[in-house]
Specification:
- The protein is an alpha+beta fold.
- It folds into two domains: 37 residues; 98 residues, Nuclear Transport Factor 2, Chain: A.
- Helices cover 32% and strands 28% of the residues.
- It contains three helices and five strands.
- Strands 1, 2, 3, 4 and 5 form a five-stranded antiparallel β-sheet that branches.
- A hairpin with a 6-residue loop joins strand 3 and strand 4.
- The longest helix has 28 residues.
- The chain is elongated.
- Keywords: Membrane, Transmembrane, Transmembrane helix.
Length: 149
């Protein structure tokens, strides 16, 4: 029966080499990658700063809205006139200093008609003064035209 399992004299040697190679790959590549991934900002943070499931309107989300407005303004030329909706917006504190803001902006380019755009902004407060733009990091921004009827 053993002869059926071992078809040539190098089968056991190749099996041993294969097992050692798998062990080395696991310990030198896969496990360090998993630990490095788990240490990323996405998985760490102060549990007291965890987010909420429901929509939130407080001073932190209001500052997140203002910072998102600044990032939206950077996407347009200096000649463009932008009017932001600062009262009718939606915002969520998704935890660990991260915020999701949904609002709209009216954009008027010189010599063109006004275009309304909806935007969704994901932003992270990295610490420090809420009013300082250097303390915010934009992690995502999507602008979409609103179809006028």
């Amino acid at each position: 029966m053993f002869e059926k399992l071992v078809r040539n004299k190098y089968s056991m040697l190749l099996l041993a080499i294969y097992i050692v190679a798998l062990y080395v790959i696991l310990n030198k590549a896969i496990v360090p990658f998993v630990f490095k991934t788990l240490e990323a900002d996405l998985f760490t943070g102060d549990p007291s700063k965890s987010g909420q499931v429901t929509e939130v309107h407080d001073n932190r989300t209001a500052m997140a809205l203002l910072q998102c407005n600044r990032y939206v303004r950077e996407r347009f030329d200096d000649e463009a006139s932008l009017t932001f909706e600062n009262k009718d917006y939606h915002s969520w504190d998704i935890g660990f200093g991260r915020f999701l803001v949904k609002s709209r902006v009216d954009v008027s380019e010189p010599g063109e008609a006004m275009i309304r755009k909806n935007y969704v902004c994901e932003i992270k407060h990295t610490g420090g003064d809420l009013a300082d733009q250097e303390n915010w990091k934009l992690t995502g921004l999507a602008l979409n035209d609103v179809k006028q009827p």
